[in-house]
Amino acid sequence: MKRLLIVLALLTLVLGMALPAGAQDAPAGEWLGTWPYAAPGTHHLNGFAAGGLNDNLGLVYRTFVHLSPAYYLWGTNEYVGLLAESWGFVDDNAAYEFTIKEGAMWSDGSPVTSQDVVDTFDIGRILNWSQWSFLTSVEAVDDSTVRFNFTEGGASLNAERQILKEYVSPSATYGELAAQARQLVADGATSESESWTALSTAIAEFRPDVLLATGPYTYTLDDVGEAFMTLRWQPNSLYSGSVNFGTLKIWAGETEVTTPLVLSGELAHSTNVYPPATIESFAAEGIRLVTTPRGYGPALLFNFTVPPFDNVLVRQAMAHAINREQSALLTNGLGASGTVYLSGILDSIAPNVLSQETLDSMNRYEYNLEGAAALMEEAGYARNADGKWADAEGNTISVEYTFPADFADFSAAARDATAQLNEFGFDITERALPWQEAAAAIRASDFQLSVWSWGAGSPFAFANMNNPVRRWTTALAEDQPGLQLNIREFDYNGETVDLNDLILNVSTGLDTAAQQERAGYLATLLNSQMLYIPLNEMLSVEPLNEAAIAGGPADGDAIYANPSNDHFIIWLILNGTLSDARVQ
Amino acid sequence: MSAIPADPPHATKAHADAAPTLGQRLRRITRSYLFRVLLSGLITIWAVTTFTFVLIRQMPGNPVDIKIDQMMQTQNLTYEEALRAAATLFNFDPDRPILLQYTDFWSDLLRGDLGASITRTGVSVSSIILRYLPWTLFCVGLSLLVSFSLGILIGLAMGYWRGSWFDNLMTTIASILSGLPDYIIGLLIIVIFGVQLRWFDIGSVRGGVDPTIEAGFTLEYIGSIISFATMPVLIYVLSTIGTWILSMKSSTLSTLGEDYIAVAKARGLSEQRILMGYIGRNAMLPLITRLAISVGLVVSGTVIIEEMFQYPGLGRNLFIAIAGRDYTTMQGIFLVITIAVVFSNIFADFVIGWLDPRVRVADGETAQ
What's domain A90-205's superfamily in CATH? Predict the structure, then answer.
């Protein structure tokens, strides 16, 4: 009997060792999330084309099928490797390299190699990916090491982020297209060539039959329904053993469609922007709400050819005349905060980018109607009999404030600013437009006052300061006048500065002290010139129903410093922090 | 005016033996009512299609511009960089002259090709329409059938037994229902019965069919289709039946005053025969045109209801296409809607002629 038991134990051990990793069971939990994916019939699995994986899984769910090399933790300002074991600048910053983790596999059991990364970026070159503005080539050093060669001066922390954040696609699926891309480049074709266009069309129209995944989940087109799609656990990922969900159920639809699902408990987590009243009803149902930075806020934009907005004193007066806390409350309830520093960088990022000295020097434009009135008088305006500000010739400030009617948050911000400024003595009329029309109006300079975003979900000064000053001026096409602000020859402190170049270069290089200095100069300029009024900074208030999802860290945890484009659930699901509360 | 034949009977007889020449046949065809109605319909379709073609291109923002805005915002690209990247994603050149786009459209259309979706690369518009149209025809068609039939019957009864408790009760209900938009009714049902009372799982009524059931002519699959259509049908019926009821009641009341009703009663005909054969049939006539338009609009679906329940209909696709400025898909769906409305109106003309002996169609003349 004893011998028999020993034989059985040995047999079990041998069988256990012989079985592939795939023999492990899928976790029992089910994640209940949402994303507005494309419906069956138009849904496809191409990671490089419109209507494909990027659109269908978005910034939150794409990582679960295609790991990026690394994931950025905003709270501690560090990367954690997902697909990459190590990474860094090499050869005196002429290139960047990362090494793929040992044991990284595709869902079919084949290893992830550096060729997969090279192919991904070579296809991206045909699609004019922004990384190719600082890269000259991507090459495989060996099976697991990839080298990214920079253009002259192309090395930057921003470049590092764009390399480490890119999803790696499989050569088994896209290798043939990548080979054509390399041949095209070797033949000297450019993005203007017909052959280039033909290949980009071929890439866009390519439809893979199977989705090979490096992440712990994959799916087929049969898993895509009208109401929800399902990502299914697969055993060959580096993270297959750590995740606690066997399936990720993703409900289709936007805010209005997902609201009742959240209330009924059938949807546990959502990134949709819910109006304040809806947020309150979630709280009333006992649903936990998690707050994270959204990575932008609404800004009041000026058309600089419309007087008196070309006058810095008037712009400063307007900044004083708007109560930004009220603006935040009316924009998105608890999901927004009044801007504090007005430095051109989101308040949630500014302390990491600017020195304390710079932050302390920022004019905070406190809500101060008397101070605002003094500035208006200094600008040559006086209140008329109706209490409206008028210039020496009696002209009141009668303008239109254009805003996108279909963006509830931006609409609210614009309407509140209108009301506050009218109360102060302006004569502003609201003009609601469909968002596409409102954006087109800014590009065409067919507006007087408008609202659009400021800041960016990026840890670097460039992306923040680029939006909206450069985005709506020199970043536009030549026939698009935008804000009508000459930022290439901008008068500041008695000299003419090239604000365009200052913004472009603010985050270049790897010298963080120099970057901080350049960012400080720009922050002071933007703060004093008030080229736009950053009304508030938006937060993402996301339901995380603890009746269905367990393990969410307490409020204030560093992971919640991550904005939407490095969403916290990516890391918390992959590392097994979150689990299904119903199966514990 | 009564119907008058174009040729007197004796003239018809006199020409009976002589075979008509080709010219005479052509003239007869071109003068025929059917030909003129069809020609008019085709011209209407062309005009509406052309108008729509131009109009949707006048909407601010094209598919590429929308993508450019998103890329500039999220990737900090310049307009030109974003334009290059966006152009590779879509099979669309916003700078191509509109006249050339128009000729492309018609040359494709005359070959039966509605083109490819701009925002959903590699997907033909025809495939989108063919995939989603049956769902809409089933759901909205069934809803219209139920709504119209019930509305007619209830309205008829209310008119006939006017002043009764039934009339008063139904007038109140119908007035309320006709004043409520479909999305309010839908939201109320979801919030009250789904969220508050938890009578059903909200997620279980979304979509067109249970995706776990294999497609086929099986009881299970058909049952699932009917089950998923229940909620959209219910909401559509509730949101439209009030208008049918009130219109039918009003029409019934005016019919009741006609002499032939008094004559029918004097002849001692049964109440049922008077109600259905005399009152109902004649009271329904004014509603036929409206029904025809509603039938035509069936194909456009009910956008908000379809979106609310993620129902796989054409209306939801039209909504997505408009939001993304997918010109080709919008054109294709608008074309189908136009054809449906035009031909259902033509059909209505013939039905009215059939229902009402006073309206005759004879040799190219409609005499009333």
Answer: Dipeptide-binding Protein; Domain 1 (3.90.76.10)
Sign of CA dihedral B108, B114, B117, B118: positive
H or E, element range at A300 = strand A297-302
**SS3 for A34?**
strand
User: Which residue is it, tokens 């338009």?
Assistant: B293
- The answer to whether B201 contacts chain A (CB < 8 Å) is yes
A266 has a chain B CB within 8 A of its CB:
yes
* Domain ranges within chain A, ordered by starting residue: 27-65+215-288+544-584, 90-205, 297-538
With an 8 Å Cβ cutoff, is A458 touching chain B? yes
Does this model's pTM top 0.90? My answer is: no
Give pLDDT tens digits for B268-308.
888 888 888 888 888 888 888 788 888 887 877 678 888 88
- The H or E element containing residue A399 is strand A398-404
Q: What is the per-residue pLDDT across A31-58, written as a single tens digit (0 to 9) for each?
A: 999 999 998 888 999 999 888 999 899 9
Q: What is the ipTM of this complex?
A: 0.75
- Which residue of A165, A436, A445 to mutate against B (max B Cβ within 10 Å)? A436
Residues 370-389, chain A, touching B (beta carbon < 8 A): none
Is A471's Cβ below 8 Å from some Cβ in B?
Answer: yes
Q: Show the tokens assigned to A438.
A: 């409102």
- Written as six digits, the tokens of B333 are 């769906």
The CATH number corresponding to A27-65+215-288+544-584 among 3.40.710.10, 3.40.630.30, 3.40.190.10, 1.10.238.10 equals 3.40.190.10
Q: pLDDT-based confidence at A9, cuts 50/70/90?
A: low
Q: What's the fold here for domain A297-538?
A: Dipeptide-binding Protein; domain 3 (3.10.105)
B123 to A227: CB separation less than 8 angstroms, yes or no = no
